[in-house]
Specification:
The structure holds two protein chains of two kinds. By secondary structure, chain A is mostly helical. Chain A is 62% helix and 0% strand. Chain A is built from one helix and no strands. Chain A is rod-shaped. By secondary structure, chain B is α+β, with helices and mostly antiparallel strands. Helix content of chain B is 38%, strand content 19%. Chain B has eight helices and six strands. Chain B has a six-stranded antiparallel beta sheet, sandwiched between helices. In chain B, strand 1 and strand 2 form a beta hairpin. The radius of gyration of chain B is 17 Å and the shape is globular. The chains are: A mainly alpha, B alpha+beta. At the A-B interface, helix 1 of A face strand 2, helix 2 and helix 3 of B.
Chain lengths: 29, 199
């Protein structure tokens, strides 16, 4: 984990979060 | 070092503004940042990126034409990265187990890349201080730059590299997009860090 430069780690985190949002849209109540 | 105080959060917002505010349908934007650890910023490395994906034109999800083995490999890498980021062991995750599209993979692989001394599409734009705009799959295939050829292989039809004082904004699309001065101007305004962030 520490070997992953901060900029890439943040970008990767955002990419994975957005991917989850894209693929599994929130179900409205 | 006197140049810009770099702010990662606003960098992300700028990339997002560039893509979400465009009339054209861009798939991703990346900021390749010049490194101050090398003389004259001769190395361009990953600064940040924003992946939007392809337009869903009512045809469902993006077409994935990779082999089962390639998909298995991509999913494994994504699972490993997911557990690396979340700090927990890889477990079942619906999103991670969805097929990884070509452009998603291209974007992910880009995070591992850097460009040196004018070699490669972003680096060439930076060193010549000239935007590069390649539209058309054939033109990408015929490019001398490996990144452009790679982009075509992963389904891109348009790739653009626009230099700024501290790096290069690269944008790619699976659509055919012709050169516009509008985009150049937007990059000029949004990515001129010298004027905006030294305070």
């Amino acid at each position: 984990d520490e070997d992953l430069p901060l900029a890439r780690k943040r970008s990767l985190q955002r990419f994975l979060e957005r991917r989850k949002e894209r693929l599994i849209p929130a179900v409205p109540y | 070092k006197s140049v810009a105080v770099f702010n990662q959060e606003t960098l992300q917002q700028r990339l997002q503004a560039l893509i979400d505010g465009a009339r054209e349908s861009w798939t991703y934007a990346i900021f390749w940042q010049s490194s101050y650890d090398y003389p004259d910023g001769s190395v361009l490395g990953w600064g940040d990126g924003y992946y939007k994906g392809e337009e869903d034109k009512g045809k469902g999800k993006a077409k994935v034409v990779t082999s089962a083995a390639e998909q298995a490999h991509r999913k494994k890498v994504l699972r490993d990265l997911n557990s690396l980021i979340s700090g927990s062991a890889a477990g079942p995750d619906d999103a991670v187990d969805e097929e990884v599209t070509d452009t998603e993979w291209f974007f992910l692989v880009s995070m591992t890349q850097s460009f040196v001394n004018g070699v490669g599409l972003p680096s060439q734009a930076f060193f010549d201080s000239t935007p590069i705009w390649i539209s058309g799959a054939d033109r990408l295939s015929a490019s001398a730059c490996e990144r452009a050829r790679q982009g075509k292989v992963f389904g891109l039809q348009t790739m653009v590299c626009i230099p700024s004082p501290n790096g290069v904004v690269e944008m790619g699309s699976t659509e055919l997009i012709h050169r516009t001065s509008d985009l150049m101007n937007k990059v000029k305004i949004l990515f001129n860090f010298n004027n905006l962030e030294t305070s």
